[in-house]
Amino acid sequence: MIIDAHHHLWDPADRSYPWMDDSVAPIRRRFDVDDLRAAARSTDVTRTIVVQAVHDPGETAWLLEQPEPVVGVVGWVDLTAPDVVDRLAALIAGPGGDRLAGNRLVGIRHQAQDEPDPDWLARPEVVRGVRAVAAAGLVFDVLVRAREHRAALALLDAAPEGSFVLDHAGKPDIAGGDPGWVSRIDDFAARPNVACKVSGLFTEAGPAWRRQPVDRYVRAVFERFGPERSLFGSDWPVSTLATTYDDVVRRTTEALADLTPDERQSVLSGTAERTYLHRRTLSTRDLVGDPGQT
Fold first, then answer.
1. Whose CA is closest to 235, among 51, 68, 66?
2. What is the pLDDT of residue 284?
3. Could you tell me which residues are beta bridge partners of residue 108?
4. Cβ count near 210 (within 10 Å)
5. Is the Cβ–Cβ distance between 100 and 133 less than 8 Å?
6. For the ranges 111-115, 203-207, 235-239, 242-246, which has the lowest average pLDDT?
7. CA nearest 16: which of 49, 54, 58, 69?
8. Are 156 and 192 in contact (CB under 8 A)?
């Protein structure tokens, strides 16, 4: 059994996705749960975590309505809003009912890599918003490249009570060699409240990914975070720009060959269970109050 801890669903006809330029034309169309089921049919993926792909609360509301295999949603909220606590409470008490009734919101993400300011994550109002996410019992997914590395570390250190997941292993420039990636990943691994997704690496390796040492990057994540803080994600449908869904699953599983069965199961499902699905259950009453000033 595999939990895909990172994929997307979208419909560009419903809302604009600014990053969907001509370079991603093949995926600039609707991808829904039926497409996901078809893509994963020949794999052992049985449950998934869907992740936001645009800064739009409407998308998060739509994702929360999606049926299985989606069991968790990493959504979006305006972290800089003065009423971010109330907005989080509204999300938790949204389409799925209150948290105790099984609302599937498990985390929040902001595409910091798309912000003009490389230090956006370290802004006081953003830190305050992320601390509100932590107070709500939600994970914060960190989507950064090398440019945002310093700000990401500042955020982690300013919110030590939070639970964080580094998306796509920090997006290494695999095609270019990225000599600084090991140091960056070590910085994240040194913080015990950070887990790391083995996801998106085939796309980051570029069109010639088959000639790139993708497996080396996968193994480097395991070595630094350990299986208990590493988790698999397909990054579908973005990953289809490089290869098929089942190929991503197969090749990632092959990279786990040196791990024990228990360690492999941790990466493929256990870490996702612990990080996203076995989160502390809160009712909306727990979201009253100020998460603190920074």
1. 51
2. 37
3. 75, 140
4. 11
5. no
6. 203-207
7. 54
8. no
Buried b (16+ CB within 10 A) or exposed e, 213-233: ebeebbbbbbebbbbebbbbb
- Residue 272 CA to residue 4 CA, distance in Å, equals 8
pLDDT at residue 130 tops 80:
yes
- Six-digit token string for 202: 């085939």
Give residue-wise pLDDT tens across range 171-184. 999 988 899 999 99
Residue 95: pLDDT band (50, 70, 90) is: low
DSSP class of residue 7?
E
Q: What is the pLDDT of residues 20-37, one digit of tens each?
A: 999 999 999 999 999 999
For residue 51 the two structure tokens come to 């992740």
| Distance set, CA 197 to CA 2, 46, 113, 142, 207 (Å) | 14, 18, 16, 10, 21
| Residue 150 near residue 125, CB atoms below 8 Å | no
What phi, psi does 25 have (nearest 5°)? -50, -40
